[in-house]
Amino acid sequence: MQVWGRLMDELESLVGLGLISQPGSWGFPDYLQVGKPMVGSLTWEESKTILAIWSICSSPLIISNDVRPGRVQQRVLDLFLNNEMLAVNQQYHGFAGDRLWTAPFGQEVWAKPLANKSVAVVMFNRDGEPCTDVAKYNPWHRDVACGNGGFQCDVSDPIDAPCTDVPHLSTGQQAMTLDYTVLPVAWFGADSSAAVVTECDVFDVFATARVGQSLGRFPSRGFSAVIPPHGSRFLILANCSTTVKPS
Description:
- The protein is α+β, with helices and mostly antiparallel strands.
- It contains 4 helices and 10 strands; from the N terminus they run ααααββββββββββ.
- A 6-stranded antiparallel beta sheet has the order 1-2-3-10-7-8, with helices on one face. Strands 4-5 form a two-stranded antiparallel ribbon.
- Strand 4 (145-146) and strand 5 (150-151) form a beta hairpin.
- The protein starts with a helix and ends with a strand.
């Protein structure tokens, strides 16, 4: 089985563990496959998604990469050392993280509460097929076609993993909108179940591999993104405002 399909099976093992996984017994789907050469290796977008969801679910982040110069891409090292990602992974506030919402076709939202009434969120597009350019990758000349004339990521040298997604060769990108109502309002510090979150500061954890950035303040259903196939947006919602719905 190609690595993405196997990782999706492992990902399903985390569903429902948000209330069970806790200090001393964390949910652990497997070690990270980011930057590992193989037939059907992860692309860059897939790599960010796997690390984001492992982090959201408080899973141990175990790597087996050779990190010597010339044996690993700098962007992979930067991703592993992203401070905001590590902070999300290490925090636990009564709920370890889980999948909270799904919709056709392959749209998912994963989330966990953080300190200071903040919330970490992953908007995930499970659908589609990310592809790369056969001229640069596919060293075995397998010519495994995918998408709009692209090829899957077959890599024999660690420095070539992960492959870079080529948007015009890939298929299945989707527009997604974040609705704050799918997140428990208590995570935002609201005292009443009748409260709703009206707006939040939105921070993009993987705006660059090493350093995230603020995207601004958005109302519920005010933040949208076009997410590539097997891609995601890894966000932190902070300084959120709530109000009580009129009875």
